[in-house]
Each structure stands twice: as C-alpha cells, then as structure tokens.
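name: query_chain
kind: protein
chains: 1
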Amino acid sequence: QVQLVESGGGLVQPGGSLRLSCAASGSIVRVYTMGWYRQTPGKQRELVARITAAGSTNYADSVKGRFTISRDSAKNTVYLQMNSLKPEDTAVYYCNIVTFSNDDYWGQGTQVTVSS
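structure:
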C-alpha cells in the first residue's frame, strides 16, 4: 500500500508564497517521476511541474519562473515552492508519483487559494 500525504496548502494574498510538500510512504520500490498537478471545478487536471529521478524538470508555461519543484529521493518527498502567486493559481493541487514499474499514485489533494 502506497500513501501520499500532502501539506502546505492554504489561503494567500496575490504576490505571496506557499510551499507544498508531499511525502510518499509504503511499498515503493523506485520512483521515476514526482510531480504536482492542479484542478479547478469543471476543468481537467493539468500538470504544474514534474521532476525525474535524474533531476530533470518540466513546468507548465503558466508557472515558469514562479514555481520551483524539488525532491528528496532518500525521503521520497517532493516539494513545490510557489512564489508570486496569482488568483489564477487557485486550485486543488495533487501530488503524483510514477514508479519505474509504471505504477501511478495520487495524493488526496490540497487546496490553494490566492485571494485578497
């Protein structure tokens, strides 16, 4: 059984910062990618940022230069530093991991609200 536990969401004013964390535990053999997705009501879940085991990253165009993803492979933990937040960043953010065996796991989601 694999569990992903997210933390760090909340309410922040425009221009502010938040740091999301996601810790994976359980029967994880080897993690290939760790990432963050987000979803708003009525829209599809979209990739925000992803990082591979080798440290390669990719970001959605809308967050480039503002968000930074990092991981601690020894702890199977991934972070998302979000700066210069905008109201359009408001969403439920989900942690995702994909193993080298192509198993796919999701967290329960954490709400991020950017509002004055």
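note: The chain has a mean pLDDT of 94.
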